[in-house]
Amino acid sequence: MLQMPSRSATGQNRAAGGATVSIRNLCKRYNNFEAVVPTSVEIDSGDFFAIIGPSGSGKSTLLGMIAGYIDPTEGQIVVDGRDIVPEPIYRRNIGMVFQNYALFPHLSVAQNVAYPLKIRGVVKDEIARRVRESLAMVRLEAFASRKPSELSGGQQQRIALARASIYHPSILLMDEPLGALDKNLRDEMQEEIKRFQQELGATVIYVTHDQQEAAFLADRIAIMRDGAMTQIGSPRALYEQPNSRFVAEFLGEASIFPVKSASGKQAGQPCRIVLEDGTQAIIRTDEDAGPGRFACIRPERVTVGPKARDLDNSYAGTVRESLYTPGSIRYRIELNGTGSTLKVRVLPQGNTEVFETGSAVDIGWSADDMTILRE
Amino acid sequence: MNVSEKKLWAAWSRFLTGMVGAILIGFLVPILVVVAVSFQSKSYLSFPPTDFSLRWYQQFIGNDDYRSAILNSMMIGAMAAALATVAGISTALAVVRAGVPGSTIVSALSVAPAILPQIVLAIGLFPISVWLGLQGTLWAVILAHAVIGLPFPFITVCGALASYSNRIEIASMTLGANSFQTFRLITLPMIRPAVIAGFIFAFAASLDELVLALFLSSPSTRTLPLLLWEQLNFQVTPEIAAAASVILAATSLLILAATLLPRLGKDN
After folding, report:
1. What is the ipTM metric for this complex?
2. Which residues contact B106 (CB under 8 A, 6 or more apart)?
3. Looking at residue A117, what is its pLDDT?
4. Which residues on A lie below 8 Å from B176 (Cβ)?
5. Is the Cα dihedral A195, A128, A113, A17 positive or negative?
6. How many domains does the structure of chain A reveal?
């Protein structure tokens, strides 16, 4: 059996925190198509790093290169100071969880979880002990002798999680692990994955197209588009300071308007802009707010009702759509005389007034709440 | 669908049922005749049989020519099927999993021996076997039968591999298993029913193959079908019918095994 002498491949000791992952100019070209453009990113030890993006944006290709089943065209993947690109997939000691679980159908649950230890030549008694521990960690001890096909989707994914972590890999990759589950189960599994990662201490790289899932789980998120990471940051930074229209629209809801002109631009100072629809607004931002840029306002930053009159930007509006959903009230409000509508979300308090469709309302926001975006 | 269309369909389905029935009868009657003829005491092939006797079976069992021919056939069949199975699994892996360049051509070539006329293969293999110095040895027939057996394991294993995602194998490798371990512990158990079925079909194909054996064997490597053929040319006795019935029984058992064994494997 081939084994790396330099690595503790048997995973006797729990990984002391996860590995640091440094991706350097990693790219993948197929003929003339660039699936991943040269990309560099540093991921800290124990980080939960999510990669989100629409399908075909290159996120799964990136994950495949880290796992080792896709060969990069160029670049390095440096794990704890060592480039793993030349290493074959089976020597990388990376755990991976797949969307469709990829459990071995001919083996029992316990045999599936024991597999990586068996491959590493761990003695029988220790395998049995660690399989018990591992199944206890995902609370499926009772299912040890079942076949994977006898388990529900959520249970199967927990087995896959146990199998991918029983050898204490310092990196855990997950490729849309909750993609095949229904909504309620997804929420439950998110909690489970978060708890699991905290116990394991591994560095997690998590691919999903679900922005809420990424925001819930991740310390940092990278947004991919056309094979490139367009922005990397904490969920809060990405939501509150998106650097492009694409990011603002991909992560959460936003009302976005093209800017026609700006005047009095000075870093940190309020400046006046005019939107394409003629609306004037005061903003405070370091970004250049000229033509070709976009002004963006998040739905929950908009104030509706008499209080709006006191804000930097205040307008008369008409409610075009009013929707009460559990936990929030959603509106589409037209700015009178412009034809432009804004998405608005209000968190109702005990005395919050709900405006019906057609009502005339005051609407406004402060200069700090409007951001300027590139395309 | 209106009434006249319905009537048309009903007539068509009656016609098809009749056709299938006729084909089955045409196929089964000669088999029954051979079996019936073998259980009688007259020294020529007479039908319908007038008495019951195991005389020709006794003679068949006591005949050293038949004994050595059966041994040859078994040995050749087992070796040829083993070779065909190993080659079939490797080719199927290359075509379905590795997606080698020209995999369509490789597939076509692997299936070709089942479709091309065996006489062509035989004429081509003869000079090669002479050139390699294999002519007249068991190996000449074994290799030729491995070629005609190849399509069976190739087709069954291709089907098995296509029925599940290669994610399973990728998962095994991320968990630390190299290609060989992954094949032994994951791929092979998952395709086992197809491998068993392919092996049995290849074995059966070798067991009743005549044309290649005719070209490539010598008196000492004579196979059972070849001996039957020689006997038919020499003198027709019910002993041949007895031998044919034994081959028939053996082949039927193999086909039964090929259908049942993979199913048993799946349940366990």
Report:
1. 0.81
2. B91, B94, B95, B100
3. 95
4. 9, 90-91, 93, 116, 119-120, 167
5. positive
6. 2
Helices (H), chain B: 3-38, 55-62, 64-92, 103-115, 118-131, 138-149, 151-162, 167-174, 179-182, 188-207, 211-216, 224-234, 238-267
Please give the structure tokens belonging to residue A33: 């198509």
- In a domain? residue A159: no
Res. A177: pLDDT tops 70: yes
Cβ pair A105:B172 closer than 8 A: no
Q: Which of A222, A366, A213, A234 is nearest to A300 (CA)?
A: A366
Residue A193 within any structural domain of the chain: yes
Contact B174 A115 (CB under 8 A): no
Cis peptide before A291 (omega within 30 of 0): no
Q: What residue of A is the nearest CA neighbor of B168? A: A102
- A324 shares a domain with A210: no
Q: What is the mean pLDDT of residues A215-220?
A: 92
> Is-contact B186 B148, C-beta < 8 A?
no
Q: Are residues A233 and A287 in the same domain?
A: no
Distance CA B222, CA B65 (A): 9
Residues of chain B whose pLDDT is less than 70?
A: 1, 262-268
Asked whether residue A53 is assigned to any structural domain, the reply reads: yes
Q: In A212-227, which positions are buried (b, 16+ CB within 10 angstroms) versus exposed (e)?
A: ebbbebbebbbbbbeb
Question: Beta strand pairing status for A328-335 and A341-346?
Answer: antiparallel
User: Could you tell me which residues come within 8 angstroms of residue A172 by beta carbon, excluding any fewer than 6 positions away?
Assistant: A18, A94, A95, A96, A97, A164, A165, A197, A200, A202, A203, A204, A205
Question: Per-residue pLDDT averaged across A308-334, rounded?
Answer: 90
Residue A323 and residue A182 share a domain: no
Flag whether residue B177 sits within 8 Å of chain A, measured between CB atoms.
Answer: yes
From first CA to last CA, the distance across chain B in angstroms is: 47
Q: Do B175 and A2 touch (CB under 8 A)?
A: no
In this structure, which topology does domain B62-267 adopt according to CATH?
A: MetI-like fold (1.10.3720)
Residue B179: closest C-alpha in chain A = A90
Dihedral sign for Cα atoms in the order B132, B135, B138, B144: positive
